[in-house]
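Design request, C-alpha cells follow.
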C-alpha cells in the first residue's frame, strides 16, 4: 500500500501528451524506475511496460488507452497519466485533461513539432491548464537549439528552457535555480535571466527589485512562478532522454518544485445548472469539506467488471464513504478504494484533493459523472470538453446468428469507455453502425471485440440512407381477386399520388364515397400503401414526400377481407409511383472542415470534385482555417483518408444532415439496375 500523501500541497498531477512515437511511455517508465516505484524500466518492444499493459498495446507496440500511474519523489506524490498519441485516439487522451493540473506535451527531438502536439497545447490552453514542454530523445544528435527556436516560434516566446542539454546531450543542467554551468548551446546565465525576467513580469514588486538589484533569488519566486504558469505567461521547456536517463532526475525536480499543487493551478471548471443560466462553482481543494470528484475514465473488463477512475477536487474519500452519482437519489458505498499502477489496483486508505483514485463494480458510474456526498451538489457538472465528432462509420454484424444482443451489449460497453465512439441502430437500413474518428480507431475496436470479447463480426461501409419520391401526379389501380375453392379474396383500389414539398413526409387521404370500400377496410388499404412506401418501388428505398388519395374501389360482401385490401393498396401504390416520374433522393450534409490555411485550395477543389459546394470560410486558431460547405453523404464516406493526405494528418471535419436532393441520372440508373438484379434473384 502506498504511503499516504501528506496533504494536497504534496500532490502533483501530470498528463503526458503529444504525438505517437514521442517516447511518452518510455519516459513514464524512466520516471517510475528513477523513484523506485518499479525495480527497472520496462521495454515497449518486450511488452513489459507498466503503461502499455493491454494485450493489443503489447502487440501493436503503441499506447491505445490512457494509463494511470503514481510515484513518490521524496515527500511528493505524483499522479501521472500516459496518453496515446494517435489522432484517432483523442477520445482516450483528452479526458486526461479533466484530471490534471499540468499538461506535459512530449516532443520527439528527432521529428520536431507534430500536429498532435499543437492540438494538445491548444486543448490545454482552452482548459486553462498549466503547460510544460518535454523535449525527449535528445541523445539522437538532433539540432536542439533549432528545435527550441521552433517551439518559441510556434507556441510563443513564453516557451523558455528551465534546463539545457550539456555534454553532447549526455546530461542536462538546471538554469532556473542556477546561473552557472556549461551547456551545449546558449548559456545557463542567459537562460536563467530570461526565466527570471519572464516570471517577475507578473508581479510589480519583483519587477522593481529586479531592476534595482539586477537579479532575484529564484527560491523566492514561487508565488509569481505559479501565477505565470496559470496565466500561460511561462511554458517551461525541459530536455530529457528517457532511454539514457539524461534529464530524468532534473524533470522530477521540475515537477516537484516548479509545477503547481491542486491549490495553485487554475480551479476546475465546475458549473451549477445548464445552458446560459449555469453558474461557476469553485471547488476548494480542502480535505475537510464535502466531496466533489469527477469521473474522467471508465473501463469495463470482461472479468473484473466496471472500473470508475476519478480525480478528487474537494473533500476526502475513504472506504465506506457514501457517494451520489450526479442526480442519483440513492448513494453507493465505496467498498475498496484504489490507486492505479497500470493494470494493478493498489488499495489505499483514503484519497484527498488532487488524488486520482478508482472504485470497482459500481455499474451506474459513467464518464463525466460528478461524485458528491451533499444533496446541494446534485446539479454540479464539469464544463464539457470539446471532443471531436466521430464521423467515420462502419456497419457491423455478428458472424454467428444469435449473437446480435451480445454484440450490442459489448459495443455499448466499449462506447462507454470512449467519448469519441458513437453507436446507433439505423432504422432505415436496419444496420448497427459504430462511428469513430478514423480507420485506426475502428480497427482497434474490432481487434478488441475479437481478442478480448471473443466475438467474430462482419463489417462493411454503412448503406447510404437513400429515399425515393415522385415529381408528378399519377394514378394507380389494382384488383386483387383470389379464388381457392371456398371463401375467396377480393379487393379493388383506385388511388392517385401527388408530390409534396421536400421533407413533408407522407399524407394519406380517404376520398371514397358511397361505401364502395367499407370503412372497416380502409385501415387495411393504408397498411398496404405504407408497406409499399417502406419497401420502395424503383430502387428498394423508402418512398417519401407524397400524398396518397384513395378515391374509388370495389368490395365483395362475402370474399372481401383485410388481406385483400392490403394487397390491393400496396400494388396500386406501386403502379402509381412508377407513373409519377419517380426519383431517388440522396442525403446532403453540411460539412465543416478545420485544417491548415495552406491546404485551403486543395480542400475547396476536392470538395467541388465531390459534387459539393463551399459556402464560406473563416479563420480559426493561428494558421488554421474553417471551410463550411455541403456535399452528398455518399461522396464523403472515405473523406478522412483524403483529408489526411491533403493536410498531413492535421485536418478534421464534422457532418450534419441538411436535406435530401435527387441523385444525378447516372447514379439513379445504377441504383435502379442493382435493385432489379437483386429483385430478380
Amino acid at each position: 500500500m502506498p504511503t499516504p500523501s501528506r496533504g494536497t500541497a504534496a500532490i502533483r498531477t501530470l498528463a503526458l501528451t503529444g504525438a505517437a512515437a514521442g517516447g511518452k511511455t518510455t519516459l513514464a517508465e524512466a520516471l517510475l524506475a528513477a523513484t523506485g516505484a518499479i525495480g527497472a524500466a520496462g521495454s515497449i518492444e518486450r511488452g513489459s511496460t507498466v503503461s502499455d499493459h493491454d494485450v493489443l498495446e503489447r502487440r501493436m507496440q503503441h499506447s491505445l488507452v490512457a494509463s494511470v500511474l503514481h510515484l513518490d519523489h521524496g515527500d511528493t506524490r505524483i499522479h501521472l497519466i500516459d496518453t496515446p498519441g494517435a489522432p484517432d485516439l483523442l477520445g482516450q487522451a483528452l479526458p486526461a485533461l479533466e484530471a490534471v493540473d499540468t499538461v506535459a506535451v512530449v516532443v520527439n527531438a528527432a521529428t520536431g513539432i507534430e500536429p498532435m502536439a499543437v492540438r494538445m497545447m491548444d486543448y490545454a490552453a482552452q482548459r486553462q491548464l498549466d503547460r510544460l514542454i518535454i523535449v525527449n530523445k535528445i541523445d539522437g544528435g538532433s539540432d536542439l537549439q533549432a528545435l527550441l527556436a521552433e517551439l518559441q516560434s510556434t507556441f510563443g516566446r513564453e516557451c523558455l528552457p528551465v534546463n539545457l542539454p550539456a555534454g553532447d546531450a549526455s546530461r542536462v543542467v538546471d538554469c532556473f535555480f542556477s546561473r552557472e554551468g556549461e551547456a551545449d548551446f546558449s548559456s545557463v546565465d542567459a537562460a536563467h535571466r530570461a526565466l527570471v525576467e519572464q516570471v517577475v513580469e507578473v508581479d510589480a514588486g519583483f519587477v522593481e527589485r529586479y531592476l534595482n538589484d539586477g537579479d532575484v533569488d529564484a527560491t523566492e519566486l514561487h508565488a509569481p512562478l505559479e501565477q505565470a504558469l496559470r496565466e500561460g505567461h511561462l511554458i517551461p521547456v525541459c530536455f530529457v532522454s528517457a532511454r539514457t536517463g539524461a534529464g530524468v532526475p532534473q524533470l522530477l525536480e521540475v515537477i516537484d518544485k516548479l509545477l503547481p499543487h491542486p491549490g495553485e493551478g487554475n480551479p476546475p471548471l465546475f458549473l451549477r445548472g445548464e445552458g446560459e443560466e449555469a453558474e461557476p462553482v469553485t471547488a476548494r481543494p480542502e480535505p475537510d469539506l464535502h466531496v466533489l470528484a469527477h469521473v474522467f475514465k471508465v473501463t469495463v473488463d470482461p472479468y473484473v467488471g466496471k472500473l470508475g477512475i476519478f480525480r478528487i477536487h474537494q473533500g476526502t474519500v475513504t472506504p465506506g464513504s457514501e457517494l451520489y452519482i450526479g442526480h442519483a437519489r440513492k448513494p453507493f458505498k465505496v467498498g475498496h478504494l484504489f490507486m492505479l499502477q497500470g493494470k494493478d489496483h493498489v488499495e489505499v486508505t483514503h484519497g484527498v484533493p488532487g488524488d486520482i483514485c478508482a472504485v470497482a463494480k459500481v455499474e451506474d458510474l459513467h464518464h463525466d459523472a460528478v461524485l458528491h456526498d451533499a444533496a446541494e451538489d446534485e446539479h454540479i457538472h464539469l464544463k464539457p470538453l470539446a471532443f471531436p465528432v466521430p464521423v467515420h462509420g462502419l456497419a457491423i454484424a455478428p458472424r454467428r446468428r444469435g449473437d446480435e444482443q451480445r454484440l450490442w451489449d459489448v459495443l455499448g460497453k466499449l462506447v462507454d469507455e470512449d467519448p469519441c465512439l458513437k453507436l446507433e441502430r439505423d432504422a432505415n437500413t436496419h444496420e448497427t453502425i459504430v462511428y469513430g474518428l478514423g480507420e485506426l480507431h475502428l480497427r482497434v475496436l474490432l481487434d478488441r471485440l475479437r481478442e478480448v470479447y471473443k466475438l467474430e463480426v462482419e463489417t462493411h461501409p454503412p448503406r447510404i440512407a437513400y429515399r425515393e419520391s415522385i415529381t408528378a401526379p399519377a394514378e394507380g389501380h389494382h384488383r386483387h381477386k383470389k379464388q381457392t375453392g371456398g371463401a375467396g379474396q377480393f379487393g379493388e383500389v383506385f388511388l392517385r399520388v401527388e408530390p409534396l414539398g421536400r421533407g413533408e413526409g407522407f399524407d394519406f387521404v380517404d376520398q371514397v364515397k358511397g361505401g364502395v370500400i367499407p370503412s372497416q377496410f380502409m385501415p387495411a388499404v393504408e397498411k398496404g400503401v405504407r408497406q409499399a412506401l417502406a419497401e420502395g418501388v424503383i430502387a428498394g428505398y423508402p418512398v417519401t414526400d407524397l400524398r396518397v388519395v384513395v378515391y374509388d374501389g370495389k368490395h365483395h360482401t362475402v370474399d372481401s377481407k383485410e388481406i385483400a385490401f392490403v394487397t390491393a393498396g400496396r400494388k396500386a401504390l406501386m403502379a402509381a409511383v412508377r407513373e409519377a416520374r419517380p426519383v431517388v433522393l440522396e442525403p446532403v450534409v453540411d460539412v465543416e472542415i478545420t485544417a491548415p490555411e495552406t491546404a485551403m485550395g486543395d480542400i475547396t477543389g476536392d470538395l467541388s470534385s465531390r459534387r459539393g459546394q463551399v459556402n464560406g470560410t473563416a479563420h480559426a486558431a493561428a494558421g488554421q482555417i474553417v471551410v463550411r460547405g455541403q456535399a452528398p453523404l455518399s461522396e464523403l464516406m472515405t473523406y478522412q483518408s483524403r483529408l489526411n493526405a491533403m493536410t498531413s494528418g492535421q485536418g478534421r471535419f464534422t457532418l450534419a444532415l441538411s436535406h435530401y436532393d435527387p441523385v444525378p441520372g447516372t447514379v439513379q440508373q445504377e441504383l435502379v439496375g442493382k435493385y432489379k438484379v437483386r429483385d430478380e434473384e
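Comment from the thread starter after seeing the answer: thanks! The chain is about 25% helix and 30% strand.
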